[in-house]
TrEMBL record:
Residues 8-149 form the Phosphomannose isomerase type I catalytic domain. Its EC number is 5.3.1.8. Gene3D superfamilies: Jelly Rolls, Phosphomannose Isomerase, domain 2. It catalyses: D-mannose 6-phosphate = D-fructose 6-phosphate. It comes from Vigna mungo (Black gram). Belongs to the mannose-6-phosphate isomerase type 1 family. Binds 1 zinc ion per subunit. GO terms for biological process: carbohydrate metabolic process; GDP-mannose biosynthetic process; response to cadmium ion; response to L-ascorbic acid; response to light stimulus; response to zinc ion. GO terms for cellular component: cytosol. Residues 180-254 form the Phosphomannose isomerase type I helical insertion domain. Zn(2+) binds at residues 108, 110, 135, 273. This is Mannose-6-phosphate isomerase. The active site is at residue 292. It holds the Pfam family PMI_typeI_C.
Length: 438
C-alpha cells in the first residue's frame, strides 16, 4: 500500500525565548529547534519552549508547503478520526512542548473550564483561551518542581522554624494554623490554609522585601554551622533569581518534587505549581491560560490565584515518592502524582494522566530493532530527540527520521519504526481511555 499524503506530515515548529530558558549552548529546546528548522541557535540566548501543535501563540507548519497545521487539519478533518472530531471539533485537543528550564517559572495555576471562560471573557488580553489547561511533564533530565500544598503537620513545622513567615502572615493566622487539629478533615483545613496563603501572597511589597532579606541573611549564617534543608537551599537559589519576591517565601508552602529521567508529573486545574530546573517534554490541553502570583516579572493576578486554588494537601508524600516498588504513586485526590509509566513492550512506556485530551509514549529503541505503534482512532505527533531510523506506514520506502524531526500521524495509521542508531522518540495523542470508553 502506498502512503497517503495525510498519513505522515513533517512539521516545522515554533520556539519561545522566555528569559527562564537555558542558554542555547546547553538547551535541548535550542538544539531540537535548530535541527527542526535548519536554523542556527544563539549560544547565549535563552531557549525555553519548543511548541508542537495548533495553538495560535506558537503554531506548527507543514514542512512540505508551509501551511499551518491548524489550517491543514481544518481542510482535512478526517485525519483526526470521527471520535476526536465529534468531541473537540476540527482541531487538536492537545499541545505538545519541550521545555528547557534554566531558572524557576512563576508560581502559577491553570483555571478549570468554567473559570477559563470567565477570565477569557473579562480579560481576553491576559487570558487568551476559554479552555482549561491540565498538563503533564515527563522528565528528560533530572527535573525539579514545586507543586501542591504541604501537609498541615509540615506547615506547623514551617511556622515554628521560619519566623519571617510568621511576621508576614501575622499572629492571628499563625495561631489559626497551630490550633487546627492534624486529624481534621480537609474541608476544615482548606479555609485555614487559604487564609494564610492569601495573606502571604497579598503582603505589602516593602514588608516582603524586608522579610526575604532577613530570611536570606539568617539562612546564609546558619549555613556556616549546619546543613541547610533542600527547601532552604532552594529558597536561597530562588532569591538569587527573583530578589525580594514573595514567591521566595511561598516556596515553603509547596511540595518540592524531584523527577528522574522517565518520571512524569501531572497537574490538574487550580493546583499551584512552579517548574524549577531541568528539561522535559510537556503535554497539555490546547490552551495558554496561566494565572501567576510570584517568581515572575509578568502580570500577577494574586486575587484570582488565591481564590481559585483547591487547597488540597499531599498526605505522606515523602514515603510515596520514595517507594521504588510502586509504579504509579497515587496520592490524595487533586495532588500531584508521579508516574513511571506502564510498559507496553520492552521499548515503549505509556504515561496516562486522568485527563481526556492527551497521553505520552516514551520509546528508546536500540540500534537495529523494530517497534510498532498500533493504529489508534485519533491523531498522534511523534518527536525524535536522538538517533536515526525509519518510520513506515506501509510504503516500501518509508520516511527517514533523525533527531529534531517532528511528524504528525493521522488517525487509524499504524506506524512501524526501525532504528539505524539508538533512537529516542516521544509520541503524544488523545488519551486511549477516550476510545476504550466509547
Amino acid at each position: 500500500m502506498e502512503d497517503s499524503p495525510c498519513h505522515l506530515q513533517r512539521l516545522r515548529c515554533s520556539v519561545k525565548n522566555y528569559d527562564w530558558g537555558l542558554p542555547g549552548r546547553v538547551s535541548e529546546v535550542a538544539r531540537l529547534h535548530a535541527l527542526n528548522s535548519n536554523t542556527p541557535f544563539h549560544a547565549d540566548d535563552p531557549y525555553a519552549e519548543l511548541w508542537i501543535g495548533t495553538h495560535d501563540s506558537g503554531p506548527s507548519f507543514l514542512a512540505s508547503n508551509g501551511v499551518s497545521l491548524k489550517s491543514w487539519i481544518s481542510e482535512n478533518p478526517d485525519v483526526l478520526g470521527d471520535q476526536v472530531l465529534r468531541k473537540w471539533g476540527s482541531d487538536l485537543p492537545f499541545l505538545f512542548k519541550v521545555l528547557s528550564v534554566g531558572k524557576a517559572l512563576s508560581i502559577q495555576a491553570h483555571p478549570d473550564k468554567e473559570l477559563a471562560r470567565i477570565l477569557h471573557k473579562l480579560h481576553p488580553d491576559l487570558y487568551k483561551d476559554g479552555n482549561h489547561k491540565p498538563e503533564m511533564a515527563l522528565a528528560i533530565t533530572n527535573f525539579e518542581a514545586l507543586c501542591g500544598f504541604i501537609t498541615l503537620k509540615e506547615l506547623k513545622g514551617v511556622l515554628h522554624s521560619i519566623p519571617e513567615i510568621v511576621e508576614l502572615v501575622g499572629a492571628t493566622n499563625t495561631n489559626l494554623v497551630l490550633q487546627t487539629n492534624d486529624e481534621d478533615d480537609e474541608e476544615k483545613v482548606k479555609p485555614v490554609l487559604k487564609a494564610v496563603f492569601t495573606d502571604l501572597m497579598s503582603a505589602d511589597k516593602e514588608r516582603v522585601t524586608d522579610a526575604v532579606n532577613i530570611l536570606k541573611s539568617r539562612l546564609l549564617q546558619e549555613n556556616e554551622v549546619r546543613q541547610l534543608t533542600d527547601k532552604e537551599q532552594l529558597v536561597l537559589r530562588l532569591e538569587m533569581q527573583y530578589p525580594s519576591d514573595v514567591g521566595v517565601i511561598a516556596a515553603f508552602f509547596l511540595n518540592l518534587v524531584k523527577l528522574n529521567p522517565g518520571e512524569a508529573l501531572f497537574l490538574g486545574a487550580n493546583e499551584p505549581h512552579a517548574y524549577l530546573s531541568g528539561e522535559c517534554v510537556e503535554c497539555m490541553a490546547t490552551s495558554d491560560n496561566v494565572v501567576r502570583a510570584g517568581l515572575t516579572p509578568k502580570h500577577r493576578d494574586v486575587q484570582t490565584l488565591c481564590s481559585m486554588l483547591t487547597y488540597k494537601q499531599v498526605k505522606d508524600a515523602s514515603r510515596l515518592l520514595l517507594d521504588p516498588f510502586v509504579q504509579i504513586f497515587s496520592l490524595v485526590e487533586g495532588s500531584p502524582e508521579i508516574l513511571h509509566g506502564v510498559s507496553l513492550n520492552q521499548y515503549v512506556n505509556k504515561y496516562t494522566p486522568p485527563f481526556e485530551e492527551f497521553e505520552i509514549d516514551r520509546c528508546i529503541l536500540p540500534q537495529g530493532e523494530r517497534v510498532v505503534f498500533p493504529a489508534v482512532p485519533g491523531p498522534s505527533i511523534f518527536l525524535v530527540t536522538g538517533g536515526e531510523g525509519n518510520m513506515n506506514t506501509g510504503s516500501p520506502k518509508g520516511h527517514v527520521v533523525t533527531e529534531g524531526d517532528v511528524l504528525f500521524a493521522a488517525a487509524n495509521t499504524e506506524i512501524s519504526v526501525t532504528s539505524a542508531s539508538e533512537l529516542h522518540l516521544y509520541r503524544t495523542g488523545v488519551n486511549s481511555k477516550v476510545f476504550q470508553a466509547s
